[in-house]
Write a structure and sequence with these properties.
Helix content is about 5%, strand content about 55%. The chain is mainly β. A hairpin with a 2-residue loop joins strand 17 (about 260-275) and strand 18 (about 280-295). The protein is globular. It starts with 5 loop residues before the first strand and ends with a helix. The relative contact order is 0.13.
């Protein structure tokens, strides 16, 4: 089934989208324009930059903040409407999926590192109440979809070089051979890093193979491999260190050779059966992921028998199944769409910890200090219905019941280190509903409301806030109440305007209790509020120009005062620093702005882009913050047509005015090294060639 024609907010109009699997929030044969949700579709073609980092493709989405940390040992900082902003590593609070396969594990911890832009077709970003239909930790949803191979598709070769000795290379094979549609994309990226001690390399291989088994039957096989060895971690800087030299690494980063290695391989299968009014979809996936990370924890901090060491070693598998049934028909003479389903996911992980020293030698694997097996799984049931209740009114409603079970078995038991085994179950039902009013042919008004919940991740359960032995099994899930009012307007000429007002009130918000000696502990702090306004505007100017604007005003604050551990001296196990009601939540700038003007005269394409963000609080007390900034970027592309396909040369300059700025913050860093400086002026120069093949090659 095909989605209705759509105009993206971050690119030219698309004639059609690839086949959309039956999924929550989207409705068969109903345009996103007619749904009571904030959803943005971004066309992806690896862009005119390095083409290696997902943040390059996520610009211009209202409410979404994607910040590169100039540190490939840590993932992109991703938050939506303030959800996920507290994460010190990885992505939490935002649900991630790639081709329908979860990139967020059952405990709510997610990774973007295996998202491959080279083979991607589009990225869907969902904000607001309907995100809750995706389950635990769904403050928002980001889905990457690979392109579907078609007969006659060109193959593609792409290479780029840039500042800091960065190099990327990619090859995409896409097309159709008999009944098989294929899209295979391999890419490699390496850089010396803008900051000292931040060199990294990353290799990706993605494959999507689609088989038309019979009329109305399709099987998609999905494969993904990530190899990111020895990515150096420069750590954060203090304000004074940023003033002295923003490109430096913290001294202990080189002393302990802080670094991280990640390897992941996964496979999935999606079977779709379309029988007129009914569609069945069954998805299954499995993967293996290993992580080794060396931290800058001094030997003195590891003297306690309860300390787990300065080297983290994770080795585990994960997998799951998802089954859905959808039906479209009529009720009382009005169109009706129903969808029900269930899914189960499971993660098993062997976690060991070692000292990061042997004698006087630092930054090497030493004695074993931790040995445990962790398991977490979820079983969810969900349902959704869309009904056109009148000529100008429609209703979308749904609910999801989630049960998440954690279990940890401790195998490292000794004098002063008791058995830390434990288990905890969480369950919640999250209803959501929205109403759309068709105010005119090109204007929709809507309102939606719902509930959401977020369990602690295994990393947050790992240590008790009081410094005692065992897991933090007293942590409660955060629960939220979300409301949204919005308007959508579009024209036949391609103009599009979207406005949303939103509020999310959260109880039992999860926050850092203490961050010392390489150990972060968490606690529930009470009530918080995230409210604001989003505006997205796409405006064609004549036949060759386009203007895109995105603006977000977001007030994220504490509603109930509490005590926390933050600042020096260390260690702190008893909260004593007051956080007053009204204090801004860390990691969330008050305003964001993105503007992009594109002009396409003949074979040329020129673009000017402005990206701005307000000051960003860095800790719970609100007394440390990164100043706001505004950056100017330029792009130029020249394309030539050859007998075998188009040849494209592209160039990009980021931060043209060479502004000093803080690219991201490490929330509540225990050493008050909160700041990760953004790069100065940088450049990228690249070449892309798409070559057409004889039609016979697609016919096998």
């Amino acid at each position: 089934m095909l989605a209705a024609p759509a105009t993206t907010l971050a690119g030219p109009a698309l004639a059609t989208l690839d086949a959309v699997q039956v999924q929550a929030a989207r409705v068969h044969a109903v345009d996103d324009f007619d749904l009571p949700a904030s959803m943005t579709t971004l066309g992806v073609d690896a862009g005119n930059g390095r083409g290696a980092l997902v943040s390059e493709a996520l610009g211009g989405v209202p409410g979404l903040l994607a910040r590169e940390r100039q540190n490939l040992a840590q993932d992109t900082q991703l938050s939506i409407r303030g959800f996920g902003a507290r994460s010190t590593f990885g992505v939490r609070g935002v649900r991630l999926l790639a081709d329908g396969v979860p990139a967020t594990l059952p405990d709510g911890q997610g990774q973007l590192s295996h998202f491959n832009l080279l083979g991607a077709d589009r990225i869907d970003v969902l904000r607001g109440p309907f995100s809750a239909l995706y389950g635990n930790s769904s403050g928002g949803v980001v889905q990457l979809w690979s392109a579907d191979g078609q007969a006659g598709d060109p193959w593609r070769l792409r290479t780029a070089v840039g500042s800091d000795n960065s190099r990327s290379f990619g090859l995409q094979l896409r097309g159709q051979a008999d009944a098989m549609r294929y899209n295979i994309a391999a890419s490699h990226y390496r850089t010396d890093g803008w900051r000292e001690h931040s060199a990294a390399r990353r290799g990706l291989l993605n494959a999507r193979l689609g088989f038309d088994l019979a009329p109305g039957q399709r099987l998609d096989l999905l494969f993904n491999v990530l190899d990111a060895p020895h990515a150096q971690d420069p750590l954060g800087l203090s304000r004074e260190q940023v003033r002295q030299d923003p490109r430096q690494a913290t001294a202990v980063a080189t002393q302990y050779d802080t670094r991280k290695s990640v390897r992941q391989a996964q496979a999935g299968a999606v079977y779709t059966l379309d029988r007129g009014r009914r569609t069945w979809r069954l998805m299954a996936y499995a993967g293996q992921r290993t992580v080794e990370q060396f931290l800058a924890i001094p030997p003195s901090a590891q003297a306690s028998p309860l300390h787990s060491g300065g080297v983290i070693d994770l080795d585990g598998g994960y997998g799951g199944v998802d089954a859905r049934w959808a039906w479209h028909g009529a009720l009382a003479g009005r169109p009706l769409e129903l969808m029900i389903g269930a899914n189960a996911d499971r993660q098993q992980q062997h976690r060991t910890g070692h000292e990061n020293f042997v004698g006087d030698t630092l930054g090497v694997r030493g004695r074993l200090r931790r040995d445990q097996h962790d398991r977490v799984g979820n079983v969810d049931q969900f349902a959704q219905a869309w009904w056109e209740i009148g000529p100008r009114w429609s209703l979308l409603a749904g609910a999801r019941h989630s049960r998440v079970r954690f279990r940890s078995d401790d195998h490292y038991i000794g004098a002063g280190n008791p058995d830390d085994s434990g288990r905890r179950d969480y369950a919640a039902t999250t209803p959501v509903a929205g109403l759309v009013f068709r105010a005119g042919e090109n204007l929709r008004l809507y309102a939606s409301a719902g509930r959401g919940f977020e369990t602690p991740t295994f990393n947050e359960l790992g240590y008790r806030a009081d410094g005692g032995a065992g897991l933090a099994l007293d942590l409660s899930p955060a629960t939220s109440r979300n409301v949204e009012l919005g308007a959508k307007w579009r024209t036949q000429a391609g103009a599009r305007l979207e406005l949303a007002l939103f509020r999310a009130d959260t109880d039992d918000e999860l926050a850092v209790a203490s961050n010392r000696g390489g150990r972060s502990s968490y606690r529930n702090i009470g009530a918080t509020r995230r409210q604001g306004v989003e505006l997205g505007w796409l405006q064609p100017v004549g036949d060759t120009q386009q203007l895109q604007l995105a603006w977000t005003w977001l007030q994220a604050s504490v509603r109930e005062g509490y005590l926390t551990c933050t600042g020096l001296p260390a260690p702190c196990t008893l909260p004593r620093n007051p956080v007053a009601a009204g204090t801004a939540l860390p990691g969330v700038p008050r305003q964001q702005f993105h503007a992009r003007w594109r002009w396409q005269p003949g074979p040329w394409q020129l673009a000017v882009e402005t990206v701005a963000a307000g000051a960003t609080p860095a800790n719970d007390l609100g007394d440390a913050r990164a100043p706001g900034h505004a950056l100017l970027n330029l792009e130029a592309v020249r394309q030539w047509r050859t007998t075998r396909g188009p040849l494209r040369v592209f160039a990009r300059v980021d931060n043209l005015l060479d502004r000093r700025h803080i690219g991201s913050v490490i929330v509540n860093d225990g050493n008050q090294r909160y700041y990760e400086p953004g790069p100065g002026r940088g450049w990228t120069l690249g070449l892309e060639w798409q070559w057409a093949r004889p039609a016979a090659s697609d016919d096998g």
